[in-house]
Amino acid sequence: MVFLVILAGGVVRMTQSGMGCPDWPTCFGRWIPPTSAEQLPPDFEKYLKTQDIDHTFNVYHTWIEYINRLLGALLGVFIFIHFIWSFKKFRKSNQQIVLLSLFLLLAVGFQGWLGKKVVDHNLAVVKVTIHMLVALLIAAVPLIIIYKLQAAKKIEAKFLKYLSYSLIVILLVQIVLGTQVREQIDEISKSLKYQQRELWISRLDDMFIIHRSFSWLVVIGAIALWFKSRTINSLQPGVLFILAVVLATIIAGLVMAFYSVPAIAQPLHLLLASILVLSVFSFSLRLK
Ligand code: HEM
C-alpha cells in the first residue's frame, strides 16, 4: 500500500495534477469532487486562485489528485486497523509491536498534516523532501514488525550489517539529492509551461551532476554488499534483488537524462529508489 501511494504521488507529479484539488481535505469544497465544470461550487474562483498550474477547472488533474488522496486515506485506514488489531492481540505479549504500530499511526497522521501544508503553501520545497523521507519511514516500520513477528534467526555477519547500514545512509543522501533535482525540475518545467522537455536537463545546476555522480557510490556499496555476502546462500536472492534494483533505478535516471525526461520515467525512478532503500533496510534486518 505504501509503495502504491508513493507511485500515485509520482503519477500526480508526472501529470502536473498536484494542485488539481486546491483545498484540503475537501476538493473544491466537496468530499467527492466535481466531474464537470457545471458542478463547481458558485465560489469556485476562490479555489482556482490558489492554484499555480491550472487556472481553469481540469477534471483530469482534479481526479488524479483525488484518487491519490483516496489511496492515502485508505492507507491511513489500513494502519488504523493495524493498530487496533495489534493492540488487541499483543498488548500483553509483545508491547513492542503495539508501540511500532502506534508509531506508524502517528507517522501517517503527520504525513497527512504535512500533505495539507504542502497544499497550503503550493508545494513548498523543503516539505516535499520531508514528505519523501517520512514516506520511507512509514514503509520501513512494517518491515521491522514483520521481522519481529517472524522471529527468524538472524545471520551473524557484523561487517555485512555495517555495510548495509552504510549503503542505507548513502541511499538516503542520494534520495535527498534526487529530491533537490526534482524540485529544480519542478521550477524549470513550470517556467517552460511543462513544454520543451528537451531543455529541462540542460537547465539543471551542479546538483544534478552531484546526484548523477553519487550513483557510483551506490553501485560500489551494492557490489561490496554482494561480494561480502556471496558465501551466505540464504542472502543471495536479497542481494541480487538489490543489485537489480540499483541497475533499474540508474537506467531510469539515465533515460531521463538522455531522452528529455519522459514523463513515465519520473514516477518509475522514484518508485525504484524507494524500493531500493527499503530492500537494503530489509536485508540489514536479517543480520546480527
Ligand atoms: C541509485 C541511484 C539513484 C537513486 C537512488 C536516485 C534517486 C532519486 C530520487 C529519490 C529522486 C527524486 C524523485 C522525486 O522526488 O520524484 C531522483 C530524481 C532524479 N534523478 Fe535520480 N537517483 C539515482 C540515480 C540517478 C541517475 C544515474 C540519474 C541520471 C543520470 C538520475 C537522474 C535524476 C533526475 C533527472 C531526477 C529528477 C526527476 C524528476 O524530476 O522526476 N538519478 N532521483
Question: Could you explain how this protein is built, in words?
Answer:
By secondary structure, the protein is mostly helical. The chain contains 9 helices and no strands. The chain has helices spanning 2-14, 44-48, 59-90, 95-120, 125-150, 158-191, 206-229, 236-258, 265-285. It is flat and about 65 Å long. 30% of the residues are buried. The structure holds protoporphyrin IX containing FE. Protoporphyrin IX containing FE (HEM) binds at residues 10, 132, 171, 174-175, 178-179, 181-182, 185, 211-212, 215, 218, 246, 249-250, 253-254, 256-257, 266, 269-270, 273, 276.
Provide a brief overview of the structure.
Helix content is 71%, strand content 0%. The chain has 288 residues and is mainly α. The longest helix is centred in the middle third of the chain and has 34 residues, at 158-191.
Q: Stretches where pLDDT falls below 50 for ≥5 residues?
A: none
Number of DSSP strands?
0
Ligands bound, unique = protoporphyrin IX containing FE
Q: In one word, what is the shape?
A: flat
**Helix/strand class:** mainly alpha
Oligomer: single chain
Number of continuous helical runs: 9
The Rg value, from CA coordinates, equals 21 Å
Helicity, as a percent range: over 70%
* Largest sheet report: none
How confident overall, as mean pLDDT? 90
Strand percentage lies at under 5%
Count structural domains. 2
Give the N-to-C terminal Cα separation: 29 Å
Order of helices and strands: HHHHHHHHH
